[in-house]
Amino acid sequence: MTPSIPAFGDRTALVRDALLLTAMGLFLAVLGPFGSITAPIVVRFIYWPGVIVGGGMIGIVIDELGGRRLASPWLRWAFSSVTMTPLVCVLVALASDWAFGPSLPRNYPRLVWQVFVISAALMGVRQLIETASAAAATKPEAMGPPGDEAFRKRLSARFRTARLIAVEAEDHYLRIHTDLGSELIALRFSDALAELAGVTGFQVHRSWWAAADAIEGVRWKRGRGELRLAGGLTAPVSRTYAADLKAAGWF
Q1: Exposed e or buried b for every residue in 23-50, given b needs 16+ CB within 10 A?
Q2: Domains and CATH numbers, the chain
Q3: How many other CB atoms are found less than 10 A from the CB of residue 125?
Q4: What confidence tens digit (pLDDT) does each residue in 53-91 have?
Q5: Nearest-CA neighbor of 17 among 68, 74, 57?
Q6: Which of 7, 13, 180, 218 has the CA that lies 20 to 30 A from 248?
Q7: What is the pLDDT of residues 199-248, one digit of tens each?
């Protein structure tokens, strides 16, 4: 699971999240978990979509503001699920009192566990859908018309068929990053960009170019950005070139 497209600035992601939350709420209304099956059907179909949509929005805000900053998708999922649980517990407690009547003394440890289970499932499904959507969006571009034949001929035989991750300018040389490692070649950065014009990618800094299908995430803080690339590689992102990444939905 890898985060890729922020939900705040993307209408498609907002619609996707709304449909996911509504569908999950309706599913739980039909299922009637945690004893709610005994409640009238009208109450269930108000209660479950209400707490799932409300709780889901709490989780999405937490995930977008905090979880997306974490490099590991598992840490992001755990952070968002755990952090949202106390706030969602308050929402569920209030909604439960409205729907099923006051239930004090309430079994709070049990409530926290139930809320955490549903929160973890919701954030996990959301993250999987987000990852699949990002992969579907970039795959057609990555399979576009080949345009790096001339560039690859400059590489040694070992790297010519390797997956291209990034190009980094180092003085009068270029360091070519691939999934098999990196090597230096003598070439101007501007000439490399021209030869890579047919490859889907982004110039993210005056001395960095990254292949689109190698990007795993973007962080932006206090006017500075950082690109996470395949293989654990990181690259700086400058304001000058951030617009293309933003237009592509990376932040």
Answers
A1: ebbeebbeeeeeebeebeeeebbbbbbb
A2: 11-142 (no CATH), 149-247 (2.40.50.1020)
A3: 14
A4: 999 999 999 988 887 777 677 888 899 999 999 999 999
A5: 57
A6: 180
A7: 989 999 999 999 999 999 888 777 678 899 998 999 999 888 888 887 87
